[in-house]
Amino acid sequence: MKLTFLPLLIIASTITASGQWTENFDYAKQRAASQDKIIFALFTGSDWCPPCINLEATVLSNPAFQRAAQEKAILFKADYPRRKAQKPAIASQNQRLAQTYGIRNYPTMLLIDASGSKIQVVKGQRTAANIVEQIHGGKAKKRSARIRTFSLVGILVVGLAILRFSLRRSAG
User: Fold this and answer.
1) Number of Cβ within a 10 Å radius of residue 122
2) Which domains are delineated in the chain?
3) Which DSSP symbol is given to 15?
4) Mean pLDDT value across residues 83-90
5) How many other CB atoms are there within 10 angstroms of residue 95's CB atom?
6) How many CA atoms, within 13 angstroms, populate the side-chain half-sphere of residue 153?
7) Mind listing the pLDDT tens digit for each residue in 58-79?
8) Is 116 helix (H, G, I), strand (E, B) or coil?
9) DSSP letter (8 states) at residue 19
10) Do 142 and 119 contact (CB within 8 A), yes or no?
């Protein structure tokens, strides 16, 4: 009976105190895939980086931002604290992610699809309205990339069918 609750405790421990941000990237990708959302990834130094602390206090904790962002995205936070303790698995994951995405400055905000591919870097003013606008735009970019892929596959299939038909006609 105790083992049944273990997976729930592991998943629950990946959610931060606010109940909205996860620190587990694999969990964020799973949720993004199952909910057809993108990942809003925040790379931050929560206990030493003044712009990071200000961003979290003024924008990311704003209920209007949280509602709008959660509508389109899974909220993921990769923290690089200097004074706070962090689980070794999370610290290791965050170091790999910083290398993978080329993170050199904090805070950095990315939009990432469920497969882990970077859609875009969130740029411009650090306001709730600007960030939400880019999240909505990132969701549209994800959808248009999927449509382009399906379109290219469709063109390829039609082209192969025409080639096959042409080859049969010329052979017969």
Assistant:
1) 21
2) 2-135 (3.40.30.10)
3) B
4) 97
5) 13
6) 6
7) 999 888 888 888 899 999 999 9
8) coil
9) S
10) yes
